[in-house]
């Protein structure tokens, strides 16, 4: 091993990289953990003594309702994304290669487009005198415009619209890897379509499902601008609560505790994802 | 299985994805003030947009922020990828882990943790805090892009350079940088777009001294409809489409 003097470049690179990550990733995260067990203070945001009040407050019925409602909307979003995305990814993996590239490109174009602007576009469609109501009225399906904006449904539609590609891409990856010989073997052994689906396709695509759930469920609890634009004040996400606690109510311990709960949820999902992959590794061929 | 069923299904989902964007683009050329009814073709909202000085200022601010964040994150990200690829050092797993945490943690968690840090060290919220935050969330994406490029690379080239007496720095400059150039460009474009699109992190670490576009749009669309937003959205759409095609083109060309 050569000394530091002989490798100034290596040393400089490592110092820069470590410095950046320690200062802007590790320290801030430790700060959040610290803040969550401290006491709210109007002047300095947080102060001693240490306590678990913030975590206790999470279970206050008022907030618990908001969290459960947020979880419900996020779960519905995830479920709808899965129901739309699973057959979509399957169909996509059957398309000829050349066209597949184009279709995937078309799938990520919206992802590269400003998400605020896309959420706003939905408002044009869902508003009381918006396009969808006008269209439904002109074909005579409804007589009066329906209230679609500022409902739970509007928030879910917005979240699905923004997050669908994140469900489709990991699913596409597993369908693309699905081994045709296993499907043929299952068929040759006399399994029907349903049996093949339940015993081969579902377990083989499970890691993709879990990856998709991970990529949709958590952002679906954090994207506070979707309820702000589409949902009104009654359909809040955990993200709205965290934002309000930090920026308006200035209750940092509580906001920090809520964000730690989100992080723990992420860790749990990642663990499940890893587990499902390992199981397939063992049971697979 | 019949072939038209999956095809119809794919088409239907693509329609759902693209209808809102199409509506936005069409309505950006709408002369009507109401925002819902069609009142003939017009460029008035584009005109209104460019006559709004605060808006134009926010546009420049956003562009400058995205340019600088993409550049800084590409430099640091490339160096990180090179270090991870070439050097053996203690705590490599920790480094990898931190990058993974940044990429996987919900944006809002990153946002509040950075806000806490900036207030603790007394940094005034504005350009610098936005830059630090944007570079941090762009970093893992650059690292991954460059690592992917490095993993398919002939290890004998840097060895040969070293044997011929090149220092680490010279070898990096003359051998490694040219090899990872396409990944650098792709990573830069990705960082640029991520920065330009970010709402969540900027809401927390931005300040009134440096107003950027997404935050301005956010405050506009929260109350009612603003036809200027249609025009602005269309411009942003065209802009990111060009950037995306550029990055895909660079990546495809480098694979040949």
TrEMBL record, chain A:
Membrane spanning stretches: 12-38, 66-89, 101-121, 154-175, 196-226, 252-272
GO biological process, any: transmembrane transport
One cellular component (GO) term of this entry: plasma membrane
Pfam families per the UniProt record, alphabetical: BPD_transp_1
Signal peptide positions on this chain: none
Keywords: Cell membrane, Membrane, Transmembrane, Transmembrane helix, Transport
Predominant subcellular localization, coarse grouping: membrane
Key word Aminoacyl-tRNA synthetase present: no
Location in the cell: Cell membrane
InterPro entries the record matches: MetI-like, MetI-like_sf
Matching Gene3D superfamilies: MetI-like
SUPFAM superfamilies the UniProt entry points to: MetI-like
Domain of life: Bacteria
Membrane topology label: Multi-pass membrane protein
Every ABC transmembrane type-1 domain range: 67-273
Family affiliation: Belongs to the binding-protein-dependent transport system permease family. CysTW subfamily.
Protein name: Spermidine/putrescine ABC transporter permease PotB
From TrEMBL, chain B:
Protein species of origin: Marinobacter halophilus
Alphabetical UniProt keywords: Cell inner membrane, Cell membrane, Membrane, Transmembrane, Transmembrane helix, Transport
Topology in the lipid bilayer: Multi-pass membrane protein
GO process terms (BP): transmembrane transport
Source domain of life: Bacteria
UniProt xrefs under Pfam families: BPD_transp_1
Residues annotated as transmembrane: 12-29, 63-85, 97-121, 127-150, 171-190, 229-252
Function, as annotated: Required for the activity of the bacterial periplasmic transport system of putrescine and spermidine.
Subcellular localization: Cell inner membrane; Cell membrane
Family classification: Belongs to the binding-protein-dependent transport system permease family. CysTW subfamily.
Main location per the UniProt record: membrane
Residues annotated as domain ABC transmembrane type-1: 59-247
Protein name per UniProt: Spermidine/putrescine transport system permease protein PotC
């Amino acid at each position: 091993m050569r000394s530091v003097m002989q490798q100034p470049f290596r040393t400089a690179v490592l110092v820069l990289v470590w410095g950046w990550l320690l200062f802007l990733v590790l320290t801030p995260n430790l700060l959040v953990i610290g803040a969550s067990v401290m006491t709210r203070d109007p002047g300095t945001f947080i102060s001693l003594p240490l306590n678990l009040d913030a975590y206790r407050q999470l279970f206050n019925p008022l907030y618990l309702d908001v969290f459960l409602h947020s979880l419900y909307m996020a779960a519905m979003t995830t479920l709808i994304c899965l129901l739309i995305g699973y057959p979509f990814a399957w169909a996509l993996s059957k398309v000829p290669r050349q066209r597949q590239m184009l279709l995937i490109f078309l799938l990520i174009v919206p992802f590269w487009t400003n998400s605020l602007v896309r959420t706003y576009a939905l408002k044009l469609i869902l508003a009381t005198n918006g396009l969808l109501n006008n269209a439904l009225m002109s074909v005579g399906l409804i007589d009066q415009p329906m209230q679609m904006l500022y409902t739970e449904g509007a928030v879910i539609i917005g979240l699905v619209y923004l997050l669908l590609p994140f469900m489709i891409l990991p699913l596409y990856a597993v369908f693309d890897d699905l081994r045709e010989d296993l499907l043929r073997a299952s068929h040759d052994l006399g399994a029907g379509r349903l049996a093949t689906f339940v015993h081969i396709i579902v377990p083989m695509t499970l890691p993709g499902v879990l990856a998709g759930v991970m990529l949709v469920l958590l952002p679906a609890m954090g994207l506070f601008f979707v309820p702000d634009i589409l949902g009104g004040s009654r359909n809040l996400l955990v993200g709205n609560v965290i934002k309000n606690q930090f920026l308006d109510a200035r209750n940092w311990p509580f906001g920090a505790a809520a964000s730690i709960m989100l992080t723990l949820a992420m860790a749990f999902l990642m663990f499940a994802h890893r587990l499902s992959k390992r199981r397939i590794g063992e049971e697979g061929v | 299985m019949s072939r038209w069923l999956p095809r119809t299904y794919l088409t239907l989902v693509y329609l759902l994805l693209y209808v809102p964007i199409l509506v936005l683009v069409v309505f950006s050329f709408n002369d009507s003030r109401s925002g819902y009814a069609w009142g003939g073709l017009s460029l008035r909202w584009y005109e209104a947009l460019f006559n709004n000085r605060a808006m134009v200022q926010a546009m420049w601010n956003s562009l400058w922020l995205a340019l600088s964040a993409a550049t800084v994150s590409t430099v640091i990200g490339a160096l990180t990828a090179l270090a991870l690829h070439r050097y053996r050092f203690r705590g490599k797993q920790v480094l990898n882990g931190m990058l993974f945490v940044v990429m996987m943690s919900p944006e809002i968690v990153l946002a509040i943790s950075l806000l806490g840090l900036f207030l603790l060290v007394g940094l005034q919220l504005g350009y610098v805090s936005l830059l630090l935050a944007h570079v941090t969330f762009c970093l893992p994406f650059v690292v991954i892009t460059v690592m992917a490029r490095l993993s398919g690379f002939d290890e004998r080239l840097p060895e040969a350079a070293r044997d011929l007496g090149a220092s680490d720095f010279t070898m990096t400059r003359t051998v490694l940088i040219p090899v990872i150039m396409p990944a650098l460009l792709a990573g830069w474009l990705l960082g640029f777009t991520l920065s330009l699109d970010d709402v969540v992190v900027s809401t927390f670490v931005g300040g009134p001294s440096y107003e950027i576009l997404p935050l301005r749009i956010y405050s506009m669309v929260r109350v009612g409809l603003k036809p200027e937003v249609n025009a602005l959205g269309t411009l942003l759409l065209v802009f990111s489409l060009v950037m995306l095609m550029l990055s895909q083109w660079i990546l495809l060309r480098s694979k040949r």
